[in-house]
Amino acid sequence: MANIKRLQTLSIICPTLNEASQLPLLIADINLWQDNLDIHVVDGGSKDLSAFIAQLAGAHVTKTNEANRGSQLNIGAKHAKGDWLLFIHADSRLHKQWPQALKKIINNPLAQQSCWYFDLRVNANGIALRLLEIFVALRCRFFKTPYGDQGLLITKELYLHLGGYSNLHIMEDIDFILRSNKYNHPKRIELPIYTSGRKWKESNIISQAIMNAFFRYRWKKGVHSKKLAQAYYKSKRN
Q: Which structural domain, as residue segments, surrounds residue 64?
């Protein structure tokens, strides 16, 4: 009998913190996947119904004592059963063609030596946001630095080889992609992912970009990620 090629499996890992209003939308998108799939939601101490909603959707839910996104992502990866891992933020929405696009990648042996990312789209109107999307596309093209809100698709084997996400409260995505770039440049999935426009709603994009650059500078200078995260989220509330 001829050998039958085994299809690759997928796990989705999603860190949460008070995302009850966003999770049902993301779960609806995830449910477009028709094959076996394990979903791991790692909750960093939500005060709302995030964990309950995830459990109702059939996700494996792990609760942690602290909102540390790097640690949450690592916990999810540790428990994931899939050959491939898709890390995604809870306030993201997936394109309706995402299952077809990912199946084409994960069942291609040549794709296993790279990590993959979606094209960023912001779920809000405004010329400034369209310019932001163009800037992100240029940054990814020339500097090979997609961020966490663009999702990350990678084999579990390569993820472990690269050392996984560091236990950082913030900048965990930049830290990982910089290490990944030393191995192989990330590749586009050539499909959009839609991120919530809420963090841009009350912000000026230019001032936000300057602030983000300042926080990246402080991180590279060795400021502890927990201190940076506290300052970052305090600035978002002000």
A: 10-199
Instruction: Report yes or no on 207 lying in a domain.
Output: no
CA distances from 147 to 58, 143, 229 (A): 27, 12, 16
E-strand ranges in 37-130 read: 37-43, 60-63, 84-87, 92-94, 116-123
For 169, the 3-state DSSP assignment is coil
What is the full DSSP assignment across 60-82?
A: EEEE-SS--HHHHHHHHHHH--S
**pLDDT per residue over 204-219, tens digit each?**
788 888 888 899 999 9
Query: Which helix (H) or strand (E) covers residue 193, if one does?
Result: strand 187-196
Stated pTM of the model:
0.94
Q: Which two tokens stand for residue 186?
A: 């990330």
Kind plus residue range of the DSSP H or E element containing 98: helix 98-106
Structure tokens at 118: 């979606």
Asked, for residue 209, whether it belongs to a domain, the answer is no
